[in-house]
Amino acid sequence: QVHLVESGGGLAQVGGSLNLSCEASGDLMSRYAMGWFRQAPGKEREFVACIKSVGLTYYADSVKGRFTISGDYAKNTVYLQMNNLRPEDAAMYYCAANPKIYFTVGVDHAAEYKSWGQGTQVTVSS
């Protein structure tokens, strides 16, 4: 089972940028679909983005055009570049891995992902 560690969170201003990283260990990241989710206080965990090793990417409507997910499979690391941050982007961001090639329900369903990191906090100030 792959082990995931996120980093790169912090404080950004509205309109600013942050680049989150998720380093995988214990297995090749290329064997997994990698996702980013976020959870704000008092809210449910929500899908942000997903990347498959064949290069396909998926985004929540709320982040399309602002966030970019990418993977460096040589480094076993997936990134989430977040631009034009908004107050509503503030949350704990989690990296997740799905070992299956195909998703049963959809890339945006947290239950599809079997490995999770501990999260990295993103704060957006106005």
Number of helices: 0
β-strand percent reads over 45%
Class from helix and strand fractions: mainly beta
Radius of gyration: 13 Å
The profile of the biggest β sheet is: 7 strands, mixed
User: What is the N-to-C order of secondary-structure elements (H for helix, E for strand)?
Assistant: EEEEEEEEEEE
Q: Assign an overall shape.
A: globular
Termini separation comes to 40 Å
Helicity level: under 10%
Which residues sit in consecutive blocks of at least 5 with pLDDT less than 50? none
How many β strands by DSSP?
Answer: 11
Q: Averaging pLDDT over every residue, what do you get? A: 96
What tags apply to this protein structure?
about 130 residues, mainly beta, 4-stranded antiparallel sheet
Q: Describe it for me?
A:
This protein is mainly beta. The protein contains no helices and 11 strands. The chain has strands at about 5, 10-15, 20-25, 35-40, 45-50, 55-60, 65-70, 75-80, 90-100, 115, 120-125. Strands 2, 4, 5, 6, 9, 10 and 11 form a 7-stranded mixed β-sheet that branches.
Strand and helix map with partners:
Layout: E1 3-7, E2 10-13, E3 18-25, E4 33-39, E5 46-51, E6 57-59, E7 67-72, E8 77-82, E9 91-98, E10 115-116, E11 120-125
